[in-house]
Amino acid sequence: MRFPLSLSVAIGAAALLGAPAHALDAAAAVELAKASGCYSCHANAEKVVGPAFATIAERYAGDKDAAATLAQSIQNGSKGKYGRIPMPPHASLSPSDLKLLSAWVLTIKP
Ligand code: HEC
Fold it and tell me: What is the pLDDT along the chain (110 residues), one digit of tens a residue?
């Protein structure tokens, strides 16, 4: 079944309104990523031990649950999505740190 156009427009507008009211603090996210050791396994544009952050952002483009999925992966670890090397858990990050990191990863372009 096709949605009527007016409904699609309403859904689009709701998606826009759901966007964060203030811009993501990318500088704070980079500092946090450095301090948390993310860059020992990741780079923005190339695969290191883990996938490039840009590859991750591409994979989740258009997925409205992406930030929540990534926050969980960062906290609990992840395996089998990109290759054979697993990511260890990062259990000491606070919920707000996880939120910032996952939202920021999704903005990274190659
Ligand atoms: C010891 C190496 C290592 C460290 C440290 C590391 N990662 Fe990863 N990361 C990986 C690997 C390997 C994968 C791919 C896992 C897979 O295939 O499922 C990955 C995957 C990811 C994903 C994708 C998860 C998904 O569900 O698609 C995100 C996001 C991510 N890392 C962010 C981070 C952040 C943020 C940090 C710092 C807090 C970090 N990583 C630290 C190795 C690492």
Answer: 555 555 455 544 444 445 454 679 999 999 999 999 999 999 999 999 999 999 999 999 999 999 999 999 999 999 999 999 999 999 999 999 999 999 999 999 98
Compute CA distances 49 → 8, 63, 71, whole Å: 41, 24, 19
| Residue 33 CA, closest ligand 1 atom number | 37
For a ligand 1 pocket test, name from 24, 78, 108 the mutation site with the most ligand atoms within 8 angstroms of its C-beta. 78
Domain 24-105 falls under CATH 1.10.760.10: yes
